[in-house]
Amino acid sequence: MELYQRDDIEAAVRLDREALAAVEAGFAALGRGEVVQPPILSMAIEEANGEVDVKTAHIRGAERFAIKVSPGFFDNPKIGLPSLNGLMMVFSARTGLVDAVLFDEGYLTALRTALAGAIAAKHLSREASRRVAVLGAGEQAELQVRALQLVRDIDTVDVWARHRESAEAYAERMRAQGLSVNVHDSVRDACAQADIIITTTPAREPILTAQDLPEGVHVTAMGSDSPEKRELDEEVMIRADAFVCDTRAQSRTNGELKAFVKAGETEASAPFKVYELGQVIAENQRLRVSDASITVCDLTGTGVQDTAIAAFALQRLAD
């Protein structure tokens, strides 16, 4: 059994096209029905403002599978500790023995989340997309744009955040990467000229409305990943020409489809067709029928992404 620390993992695994291809292959396998993926195990630790998620998946025929433990303790910054942490345990799919433990402290989760956003944009946004609006100013606000540059020639970023100072600090970081960045005081202004909109917030009430959507835009919503979070108003999804999610089941409970789950029910009754990203990839579905089409992708984070990025990381670490 091999033990790897975050420094070694960071040195071996970056946001690059090879990592993107590995995660995209995992989505495609899910779309072909080749993945065993149980529901997320989630536990709240309310007295510490914490939660722990456990995700896993097995890609049939793959040499290994991963089980990820991902704690989030959101008061930690008050005592000088990071709010997110975690590790991935990688097992042999033939014997069940532990092959490796990746003490990545959430690094691989951050990467595979950003890569999923890029994969969604690759299949759903206009190829000529150059301008992205980012709602939020945290780690994913930066990583999503960096990953997006693997599939689109992004040169301009418009950012909005609840706190102007956070947006200004984000803008400086992104300008240092050679991008033109504009800070806005409203979501509407930030999105007005966007080819792509990325929502990266922990919002509990919708922040993006249908009136904020310019013609032909693609929206990647990745902040809603638990039952109490929401970023999109229902009308955003209703207005879209195509609504895509990573899995229907997770979108109904943790993602944006829960807006259409009525009290006492468990199934969403959405007034539009729902597509899954894995099937879009596996079947090469073309959901953007014109440059005026509006597409929305809701990403809640899947176990197959964790197994895919963990296997890729071990391959890189062994090289």
TrEMBL record:
Pfam family, one: OCD_Mu_crystall
InterPro entries, A to Z: NAD(P)-bd_dom_sf (IPR036291), ODC_Mu_crystall (IPR003462), ODC_N (IPR023401)
Name of the protein described by the UniProt record: Cyclodeaminase
Protein species of origin: Modicisalibacter tunisiensis
